[in-house]
Design goal:
The protein is mainly alpha-helical and 123 residues long. Helices cover 50% and strands 7% of the residues. It has a two-stranded antiparallel ribbon. A hairpin with a 3-residue loop joins strand 1 and strand 2. Helix 1 crosses helix 3. The longest helix has 26 residues. The mean pLDDT is 84.
């Protein structure tokens, strides 16, 4: 579960998954739990879990297989340089879109509160 420590949830999840990989709890070649399952386990949104998995991808600890899932990278594989795939970019774009929409809803809610100055909508 993500703790309210002031540290972003996606970093906490990435740290926990990284530690499980290092301990061998998540074995090389084995799958990561699904994004939905991780979101349930950590009581976090899908976008937060996707950001955590994205960090592990950038670190080269996991690799996505389109249509199959995300797997712990085999140790000693020839290519340890993380690569950005079209799937990664699609995940990033979806996450940014979701976060933008959430921010716009929060700003709209705050602008309707009495005594708060109204801001013009974004272009």
């Amino acid at each position: 579960m993500v703790k309210k420590t002031g540290r972003p949830g996606y970093l906490q999840i990435a740290d926990e998954l990284r530690e499980q990989i290092r301990r061998g709890t998540l074995a090389p070649g084995g799958p990561l739990p699904s994004t939905r399952r991780l979101a349930e386990d950590y009581d976090a949104s899908l976008s937060v879990v996707k950001m955590a998995v994205g960090i592990l991808r950038n670190e080269g600890l996991v690799i996505g297989q389109q249509g199959k899932g995300v797997y712990v990278r085999e140790t000693g594989t020839a290519d340890t340089t993380p690569a950005t795939t079209s799937e990664d970019l699609a995940d990033i774009r979806a996450t940014i879109k979701e976060l933008t929409e959430r921010l716009e809803r929060v700003e709209a809610t705050l602008s309707r509160q009495p005594g708060r100055p109204r801001r013009s909508p974004r272009s």
